[in-house]
């Protein structure tokens, strides 16, 4: 990919992703200022439940869809792309139906409420939103594979939060009932899912008959990715679940506000991931490792020097930033600072996860993320009951740092690609 094309796509995706993060920030600010830490914590616990269930029902198809759709988009084989899309949606639909049935039965028996109080409503809305949330993820992956990153970015990061924010704004000024928050999010999710599906039907229209995908091969390729996605999810959300057991909804709210603020720093990383993932897949298929190496080092240098000043600003003004959400959130100042420090290595290693996924090293990445995740969860179970959100923040930052450094080592060892912002001739891995 030429530098001009890279910066053109970078600008468009930064604009869309930036707008999406501003909307997400506005939602967090609205919930925190109007309803307080408890309702904010309840909202993020709901999001964590819905996201966790969808990780299972997606079965790792997202990365597989990006890879296969990128391959077939080179020669405009829409009939093959439709086949992969239909197969992924069909399998995920039936798996979602099974999980919904199981969750409803367990929820009715009060299994979840025995661990965490007041979870009945959370699981009801999570079950309603599971199928549209899962297929929406597939739709976005196909759009990325088709090199429609801007459309995917708008669908993923702008459409849902903007519609949700409009709905809660309208309802709040009409009748401010806290319990309607989850219902409004679910309604917004269903609408965006329907729109994205219509967009893809139009994108993939052709007169040729749909080529049916090999289900066995898709599942075989996707299973390692499922393990990676699941462990990545637990790395990001395990603190929320464990705080739900040993802490309070208020602590969940404070921790997740801090975490969301930190993820805002990762906007450029998310954008580069969207650009680099299909490019890595195409270059690897052509055997062009040199281009992969150039893309990776260029990405990491840009990310590191863009991210470092932002991290410094957040660390210095952490108390002022947390104070925007209300006085009860100021106690999360140290949490924000700890999580911000942990993002340094996230910027330094760049798109290393997608680099490994798109070059056939899913199993190595899966094993790494799994082992890191197990250690993280064990550490949280030991320390969170005593040190609460402080333990959650420190352990999460250490887990992210460890995973990124070891991922960079795996990439260098197997591909000769140095996923760090340093010249290649300065070899640090032997």
Structural features, described:
There is one protein chain. By secondary structure, this protein is an all-alpha fold. It has one domain (3-415). Helix content is 83%, strand content 0%. The chain has helices at residues 3-58, 61-73, 78-108, 120-145, 149-174, 180-203, 215-246, 249-265, 267-286, 289-316, 318-323, 333-342, 344-349, 352-357, 362-415. Helix 7 crosses helix 15 (362-415). The longest helix has 56 residues, at 3-58. The model has no long low-confidence stretch (mean pLDDT 81).
Overall average residue pLDDT: 81
Largest sheet: none
Overall domain count: 1
Q: Which runs of at least 5 residues are low in confidence (pLDDT < 50)?
A: none
What Rg is obtained from the alpha carbons, in whole angstroms? 21 Å
Q: Please tally the β strands and state the result.
A: 0
Question: Roughly how many Å apart are the termini?
Answer: 30 Å
> Given the helix and strand composition, which structural class is it?
mainly alpha
Query: Secondary-structure element sequence?
Result: HHHHHHHHHHHHHHH
What overall form do the CA principal axes indicate?
Answer: globular
Name the beta content range: under 5%
Q: What's the tally of helices?
A: 15
Q: What's the helical proportion of residues?
A: over 70%
